Amino acid sequence: MDPLRDVSRETRQRLEVLVETLERWQKAINLVGRNTLDGVWKRHVVDSAQVVSLIPAEAKTLADLGSGGGFPGLVIAAMRPDLEITMIESDARKAAFLGEASRKMGLANPPKLVIKRIEVAPPANAEVVTARALAPLAQLLEWSDRHRKDTAICLFHKGKGWQAEVDEAKKKWDFSPEAFASVTDRDAVLLRIGPYTAAADLRDRQPEGRRR
Question: Partner of 47 for a Cys bridge, out of 7, 35, 37, 184, CB 3.0 to 4.6 A?
Fold first, then answer.
């Protein structure tokens, strides 16, 4: 199913502007993998757009971590103008791109852009946290913990090694993930993770003689 099938003409035009701006800036800075430019609509726009159906209709705030080339943050902003979106990006050049792309797209509700490292940026206190092609799941959950409400959900794009990432992340976090098949890559998924907590101290699980 094409997640862009039912979008308005205005929304599609905004996404076209995003792609045009990306292609121009890509000549100077590396925003996306160079070998993905020929298939930019499927590899990046459609791939980002599919996450929108997993965002609760009643959600009001969203934080996009490591927004980079605007995927999925600017795509979500175009498709869900009701959301107050915070995009966090530490690279000043990429942040400059995000600012120009947002302006050129003429977004009804432009995202707030925070140019800081995720781990030191002011807490976003968001109801939804997204990230794409950024870091292993355990690291994403650690970063998201700073920027989410206690009841927030996290939506992460993950490739074919996603199950191993889940297993590794469960050593540190208690969570129950839902995996949704990607419409752009048969080996990829979208992970939806509801409220989660830090796992119990591993030392408490060890026999008495192994504790320190």
Answer: 184
9-210 topology per CATH: Rossmann fold (3.40.50)
Number of helices and strands (H, E) in the chain? 7, 9
pLDDT mean across residues, the chain = 92
Residues 55, 155 contacting (CB under 8 angstroms)? yes
CA-CA distance, 117 to 202, in Å (whole number)?
Answer: 29
CA distances from 14 to 21, 104, 107, 133 (A): 11, 8, 8, 23
Task: Give the global pTM.
Answer: 0.91
Using CA atoms, how far residue 3 sits from 45, 96, 183, in Å, is 10, 28, 9
The residue written with tokens 């035009």 in the block is 13
The residue length of the chain stands at 212
Q: Which residue has 């355990």 as its token pair?
A: 138
CA distance 200 to 77: 37
User: Each residue of 109-132: b (16+ CB within 10 Å) or e?
Assistant: ebbebbbeebeebeebebbbbbbb
Q: Which of 96, 145, 150 is nearest to 119 (CA)?
A: 145
Identify whether the C-beta of residue 13 lies closer than 8 Å to the C-beta of residue 59.
Answer: no
103, 14 contact by CB (below 8 A): no
> Using an 8 Å Cβ cutoff, are 176 and 194 in contact?
yes
